[in-house]
Write a structure and sequence with these properties.
With 149 residues, this protein is an alpha+beta fold. The chain has a single domain (32-146), classed as Electron Transport, Fmn-binding Protein, Chain A (Pnp Oxidase, Chain A, Roll), CATH 2.30.110.10. Helices cover 15% and strands 39% of the residues. The protein contains two helices and nine strands; from the N terminus they run ββααβββββββ. The protein has helices spanning 37-55, 60-63; strands spanning 24-28, 31-35, 67-73, 80-86, 88-90, 93-98, 115-121, 124-134, 140-146. The strands form two sheets. Strands 4-3-7-8-9-6-5 form a seven-stranded antiparallel beta sheet, covered by helices on one side. A hairpin with a 6-residue loop joins β3 and β4. The longest helix is centred in the first third of the chain and has 19 residues, at 37-55. The chain is globular, with a radius of gyration of 19 Å.
Length: 149
């Protein structure tokens, strides 16, 4: 379609089929993807399954050292949250890479000066201080410095 009076470059695109208000838009150089409430519900179920796997005495050992659970209090809501994350550990420092950070909000609780959180490491809950940083390429990393035992 040639550019003309019936074409608006800035016109909003219609929401993908099945998406409703409250959708999350992921943007990157060259395009974007939108996730609706139904995807958020599915991810909630997936997260619950992964949390059960991490906490399982039988199966937890298979993912220990790669996947763990973190718990924190929301900065605005004051509500407690727990979710599974993949991580790397070096001594008392844990690094969490946030995949698709624009589709997630949890890491924003740790921007600036950061905030306390609890992370399950070696089968025990450890407290620490987490700080989230976004690099110039848009990648987000949350670094947790564990408190001494």
């Amino acid at each position: 379609m040639p550019l003309g009076e019936n074409y608006s470059h800035n016109a909003p695109e219609p929401a993908p089929r099945g998406c409703r208000a409250g959708r999350v838009t992921l943007g990157w150089q060259g395009g974007s993807v939108q996730f609706g409430n139904s995807v958020k519900r599915v991810m909630g179920v997936v997260n619950a399954g992964v949390m059960a796997l991490v906490d399982s005495p039988r199966w937890g050992r298979l993912v220990d050292g790669h996947i763990t659970s973190i718990s924190y209090v929301g900065r605005r809501s004051g509500r407690p949250f727990s979710l599974p994350v993949s991580y790397r550990r070096a001594g008392d420092e844990i690094t969490i890479g946030v995949a698709m950070p624009d589709a997630k909000s949890w890491w924003r609780n740790f921007l600036g000066a950061g905030a306390p959180l609890t992370v399950r490491v070696d089968g025990a809950d450890r407290t620490g201080h987490a700080v989230a940083l976004r690099d110039d390429r848009g990648r987000v990393t949350v670094t947790v410095h564990l408190d001494s035992r």
